[in-house]
Every structure is written in structure tokens, then in C-alpha cells.
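Practice problem 4.
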């Protein structure tokens, strides 16, 4: 167990139980949904560059097979332990159910700090891990499909797919054994910004709901809303970018070395470059430094986005939070105690389990692309452009007016892969938000949006089990 005062898996179970009370399902069925179906804990030796042998500790958990395959990232981190991997796998089950992605939840982890290893050592560790998974039938396009997470990215996914394909010669769908791959290896365009864009789409939809905004005393829409982002990794960076581009003001950005504030708004790309040059986000021109990174969480703002680590908002600092909306871009940034405190303060928490589902949604699109062996847009792009061009020329002829060049290009544009991926993600996040809010509106006794999300997930997974005939 990690040094947290309670286990992460227990806190997921606690949220689950809180929501289960608002459903009608049999206790046995609820117990089955909660349980992790398979836990693979492994140890394997890897020879390091200096000749010594290190025994690596690693895990893969398959939480639920109510839908196949299982799906979930692999993280490389010192903090990896069985409890954390189990918690993240179970969250994946609920996340996929909420956003209507037909996967069961899974998660993997290797207990290493990737910064302490050479690229060659990381490659050996990743490939050995993959071959261990293949041996036990714990990976495959129809079994269990990993993806990137903390400390892993396209490079590691390319090693995984290569190792898998070499151990399964002739498997035509081998590329579908893992997602988050480089484009040249069957990856999908739009994967990098997917989680941040999903966070943006989800919160934008909440902000467009008049009744919700009225309760919070905010104007409808996201224009001019003040946003604070904690974390300038991939998710934090893209979340800040989409909010800024759509008229919100990102007034503060926090990283582990500290935080910076500017009431007129910050530009994430300039800060990213400044950090690259100086090694820190602090002393950014025109911004004020904040003494502690965690101070950013207590700033006056409309929307607070914790996009870094778990448990950053807890019973200690929750009473000091002044945001009206908290968008959980990270996994588990709030403790259950914080949830209670914030609900009592009428702060709306938009929960991680669906808000950061952009990554798995786009992973699903990548997996479908791998199984169909054709990139998105290849079939219809020119057809759409030719059709739009024809319609436009007919309208111009009939009306005797010309459409200006910029509008013309927009109308004529046939969808590229990235357009279709973004559009699919937008549709996914909007409909998931509406489904959750419908459940919450229909049952005012549900205390918060997280519980409403769990109710939605439990209902879908339970229905799936019932229809499989496993539970009468």
C-alpha cells in the first residue's frame, strides 16, 4: 500500500457504494461489478547497461469483462502498486460505460522511475513486460488493449506492438493490441490532445446548461470565465489551450516547482517555452509567482482544473477552494472527504471518471481504425468536397451572389482524420454530459455529479451483465 491514509481502490469502492443506493440492482450483481476479475502481478529480470541484473515489479489488472477487450493505460512510476492499478482499472470500467465505449476496464503499471533508465533499458523492460503479458494471454486486440499513461508515450506503445506482432506472426489485427501508437505504426491523428479536448468539451457543455449555471450564480457559456490549471503536462497544456482559444481567461498555471498568476490571462505555449528555456514556469514575464504550487488551488476563479496528481484537494484545503466549478482532468484529484465539503459549499465537481475520458474515446477510434485497416476520411473526403462544391456553385448561381473565400474554404472542406476524431470526441462528451445530468435532475437526492456518473455507469454495466444472462 502507498503512504496515503487510505487506499485508492477503497475510495473508488466508497464512491461506488454511495451511488449503488440509487440503483435497483441485486447486491450480488453489484459485488461482481465492483470486484477486479483478474490481477496479474509479475517480477522479471532485466540486464542493465552496466551489466547488473535488476528485478522489475509490474502489474496488469483486468477489472471487468462485461465487454471485451479490456482497455487501460500502462504507467511507469515509482508509486505503482497493486492497489493503485486496481483502482485505476475499475475507474476505466466505469469511464468506458459512461462514454459508451464498448470496453471493460484494465490497467497496467511498472514500478520504475523512467528518468533513471536509458532508452535502451526502458525498451528492454517494455518488451519483456509485453512478452510476459503475451505468455499469460493478457494482451491482444480482442483480450486486453493497453495505452499510454504517466511516464509512457508513443515510443513505448511502438515497442509493445512490435513485440506483440513478433510473438504472434501472421495475426492480421496485431496493430490493435495497443493504442496511442505513432501514426506510422497505426496510430490515429488527434490522440495527443484528446484528453485535454475532452475536458474542454465536457465543461463547455456543463457551462451551456442554463439551470446548472443559475444554481452556481454564473453566466451561461465559457467566454470570459476565469480558469486555473494545475499541471502543464499533456492534459493541462491542451486544456489551457482550448479554454484560451474559446474565450476563457487562464489566470493561473501551477506546476510542482510553483505557480504563476496573471489576471489578464496567460498563454500556455509561451509558458511552456519559458519552462523549456529556464527549467521552471516561475518568473514568467508579466506574471506573479505564487509561493507554493498548491496556493493556485485556492485562488478566486470560476473553473479550477486539477490536471496533475491524485488527492491534491483534500479535507485540509477543500474549505479554502473558491472556484465555482472543478473539472477533474487528472485521475482522483479529490479525496472523498473533499467531495463532501465542496458539495456543502455548492461547488460543482465535474468528475474525472467521465471528464478525462477523451483519451480512451480516441483510443477506441484508433482500435477501430486498426481493425478496419483504413484511415478515417480516406473513403469520403473527396466525395464530400465534390458534393459541397456542387451545392455551393448551385446556390451562388441561383442567388447571383458570391460566397467570400474564407467561408467558401470552410464549406468545401472535406473531413480529414483529425476532423472526424475531434467530431466523434465532441459528440461523445456532449451526450455523456447530458446523460449524467438527466440522471441527476431525475433524482434530486443524488448529492453530486460524481454519484450521478457512477449511477449511470452501474446501470450500464449491470444491464450488460443481465443481458449476457450471467445474472437473471
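Answer key:
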Amino acid at each position: 500500500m502507498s503512504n496515503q491514509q487510505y487506499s485508492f481502490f477503497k475510495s473508488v469502492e466508497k464512491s461506488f457504494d454511495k451511488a449503488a443506493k440509487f440503483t435497483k440492482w441485486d447486491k450480488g450483481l453489484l459485488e461482481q461489478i465492483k470486484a477486479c476479475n483478474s490481477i496479474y502481478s509479475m517480477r522479471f529480470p532485466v540486464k542493465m547497461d552496466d551489466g547488473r541484473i535488476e528485478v522489475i515489479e509490474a502489474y496488469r489488472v483486468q477489472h471487468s469483462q462485461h465487454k471485451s477487450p479490456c482497455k487501460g493505460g500502462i504507467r511507469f512510476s515509482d508509486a505503482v502498486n497493486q492497489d493503485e492499478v486496481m483502482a485505476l482499472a475499475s475507474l476505466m470500467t466505469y469511464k468506458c460505460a459512461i462514454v459508451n465505449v464498448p470496453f471493460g476496464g484494465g490497467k497496467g503499471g511498472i514500478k520504475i522511475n523512467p528518468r533513471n533508465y536509458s532508452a535502451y533499458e526502458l525498451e528492454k523492460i517494455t518488451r519483456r513486460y509485453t512478452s510476459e503479458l503475451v505468455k499469460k494471454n493478457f494482451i491482444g486486440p480482442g483480450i486486453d488493449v493497453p495505452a499510454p499513461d504517466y511516464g509512457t508515450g508513443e515510443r513505448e506503445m511502438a515497442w509493445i506492438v512490435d513485440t506483440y506482432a513478433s510473438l504472434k506472426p501472421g495475426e492480421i489485427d496485431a496493430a490493435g493490441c495497443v493504442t496511442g501508437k505513432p501514426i506510422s505504426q497505426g496510430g490515429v491523428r488527434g490522440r495527443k490532445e484528446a484528453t485535454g479536448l475532452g475536458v474542454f468539451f465536457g465543461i463547455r457543455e456543463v457551462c451551456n446548461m442554463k439551470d446548472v449555471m443559475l444554481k452556481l450564480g454564473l453566466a451561461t457559456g465559457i467566454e470570459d470565465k476565469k480558469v486555473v490549471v494545475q499541471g502543464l503536462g499533456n492534459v493541462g497544456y491542451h486544456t489551457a489551450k482550448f479554454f484560451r482559444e474559446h474565450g476563457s481567461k487562464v489566470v493561473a498555471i501551477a506546476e510542482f516547482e510553483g505557480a504563476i498568476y496573471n489576471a489578464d490571462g496567460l498563454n500556455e505555449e509561451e509558458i511552456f517555452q519559458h519552462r523549456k528555456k529556464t527549467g521552471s514556469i516561475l518568473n514568467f514575464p508579466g506574471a506573479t509567482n505564487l509561493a507554493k504550487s498548491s496556493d493556485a488551488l485556492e485562488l478566486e476563479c470560476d473553473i479550477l482544473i486539477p490536471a496533475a496528481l491524485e488527492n491534491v484537494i483534500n479535507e485540509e484545503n477543500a474549505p479554502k477552494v473558491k472556484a465555482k466549478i472543478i473539472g477533474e482532468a487528472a485521475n482522483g484529484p479529490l479525496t472523498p472527504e473533499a467531495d463532501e465539503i465542496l458539495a456543502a459549499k455548492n461547488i460543482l465537481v465535474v468528475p474525472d471518471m467521465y471528464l478525462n475520458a477523451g483519451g480512451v474515446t480516441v483510443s477506441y477510434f484508433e482500435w477501430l481504425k486498426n481493425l478496419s485497416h483504413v484511415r478515417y476520411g480516406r473513403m469520403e473526403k473527396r466525395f464530400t468536397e465534390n458534393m459541397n462544391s456542387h451545392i455551393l456553385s448551385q446556390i451562388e448561381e441561383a442567388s447571383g451572389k458570391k460566397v467570400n473565400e474564407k467561408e467558401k474554404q470552410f464549406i468545401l472542406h472535406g473531413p480529414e482524420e483529425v476532423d472526424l476524431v475531434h467530431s466523434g470526441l465532441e459528440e461523445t462528451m456532449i451526450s455523456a454530459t447530458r446523460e449524467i445530468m438527466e440522471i441527476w435532475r431525475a433524482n434530486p437526492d443524488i448529492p453530486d455529479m460524481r454519484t450521478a456518473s457512477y449511477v449511470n455507469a452501474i446501470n450500464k454495466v449491470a444491464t450488460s451483465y443481465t443481458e449476457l444472462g450471467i445474472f437473471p
